[in-house]
Amino acid sequence: MAHDSQNASPTAAGTAVENTPLILSDRTKEALEITKRGVDELLIESDFARKLQRSEQTGKPLRIKLGLDPTAPDLHLGHTVVLNKMRQLQDLGHNVIFLIGDFTSMIGDPSGRNVTRPPLTREQIEENAKTYFAQASLVLDAARTEIRYNSEWSDKLGARGMIELSAKYTVARILEREDFTKRFKAGTPISVHELLYPLMQGYDSVALESDLELGGTDQKFNLLVGRELQKDYGQEPQCILTMPLLEGLDGVEKMSKSKGNYIGITEPANTMFAKVMSISDVMMWRYYELLSFKSLAQIASYKAQVEGGQNPRDIKVALAQEIVARFHSQQAAEDALADFNNRAKGGIPDDIPELTLSGAPIGIGQLLKQANLCPSTSEALRMVEQGGVRIDGAVVSDKGLKVEASTFVIQVGKRKFARVTLA
Fold first, then answer.
1. Phi, psi of 93 (to 5 degrees)
2. Ranges for all domains in the chain classified under CATH 3.10.290.10
3. Which of 64, 82, 168, 287 is surrounded by the fewest CB atoms within 10 Å?
4. Which PROSITE patterns match (predicted)?
5. Is residue 413 helix, strand or coil?
């Protein structure tokens, strides 16, 4: 498993939950395998196995925490990797806690950053938090999800409590974080409040008496701080589970809106379907592992079918339909497949935007920009150069084309269409 160098500190070692020999029941073994599916790391696995076993024997669910700072209101499939894991644990019968970091958002998480992150206002936090949970509920069972805000206990700490909490951790250990180390060596400013962030996130685990905390690989340091603080407060230390960061549509960079390689979970069904279909046949298996709810046995069967000669496209269609059905409906998934097939044959989708423009005759570059099919005239002309522009099905090859008044359908690339009335 890949280990994230940024978060290589505080020690993951610690006193085991129990020192008795570990003999797991079949049910606990199955739960452990489900938990481990697709994870980057599970620390400490033997401790978590004991927690699972004890939960089965006592009937007391584990407390499983995911903390999210509502820094942006829109989620993409990359965000859902950790939410999928929460849902799996929820379906195993455990209590999942969706912790909204309204207090920590005012500090700003410095993870992976080389500059101080500007804190959010209370209004921004509250607005983002509403949207965040509404979107997360497309994955989690909202009725069985406990929603908490860390201002509940963080606001009550006060100055004395913050000083007492800060006394439990040394500056040297905080500076072991790679992002802090780099900034310190480079002489880049590090504000004192940033050093408090890992402590405040760790204190959340104390306040919630967490058994397991989830996060991305970039959160490993913060998760381990929680484990250490729980020991200081006399609690059984939580285990930590880190999930990989999902690559975007390019198969290289992590999924990100700023990089334009994302699939938003509130995007139209047809767009979502087409984007899933655009990933490579190799990347498809990574998406299956991290995004699909199909069993490992079913995925292994799919791989065997492809190795036996089946077209990978058929397997990718199943993935695209599963994802669209999750965030829209089964009917939307069927319609999206029909739309995708229609486009593949050169057909025009039913639901394309219609608009009226004036200024005929107009240059093709300006036309594509005004029709919102390209962000700029230079990008529009580049698409013409590449043969990616069609008017009523005919490829446009002349960058100097002046389009006369008429009504026509413009297509840019495989997925962008508009019916334009030009006057």
1. 100, 10
2. 354-422
3. 168
4. AA_TRNA_LIGASE_I, S4
5. coil
- Residue where the block lists tokens 């697709």: 38
Per-residue pLDDT for the chain (423 aa), expressed as one digit of tens each? 333 334 444 544 444 445 566 788 999 999 999 999 889 999 999 999 999 999 999 999 999 999 887 776 678 999 899 999 999 999 999 999 999 888 887 766 555 444 445 667 778 888 888 888 888 888 899 999 998 999 999 999 888 988 888 888 878 888 877 778 888 888 888 888 788 888 888 999 999 999 999 998 888 888 999 999 999 999 999 999 999 989 998 888 888 877 788 899 988 998 899 899 989 999 999 999 999 989 889 999 999 999 999 999 999 999 999 999 999 999 999 999 988 888 777 677 767 888 889 888 899 999 999 999 998 999 899 889 888 898 877 788 888 899 988 788 898 987 788 889 888
Beta bridge partners of 215: 242
Whether 210 contacts 63, CB under 8 Å: yes
> In this structure, are residues 277 and 316 in contact, taking their beta carbons and an 8 Å threshold?
yes
Identify the CA nearest to 102 among candidates 130, 69, 77: 69
Range(s) within the chain of domains with CATH label 1.10.240: 269-344
Fold of 5-243: Rossmann fold (3.40.50)
Q: Which residue has the tokens 């500056």?
A: 171
Sheet holding 95-100, edge to edge: 41-43, 239-243, 212-216, 63-68, 95-100, 145-149
Q: For domain 269-344, give the CATH number.
A: 1.10.240
In 3D space, the residue among 242, 168, 159, 176 whose CA is nearest the CA of residue 199 turns out to be 168
Tokens matching residue 417: 């269409």
Q: Where in the chain is the domain with CATH 3.40.50.620?
A: 5-243
Whole-number Å distance between alpha carbons of 209 and 195? 23
Map tokens 């799919």 to a residue. 302
Main-chain phi, psi angles of 241, to 5 degrees: -130, 120
Say if residue 257 carries a ligand binding annotation: yes
CA distance 292 to 57: 30
Backbone angles phi, psi at 97, to 5 degrees: -115, 115
Is 123 in a helix, a strand, or coil? helix
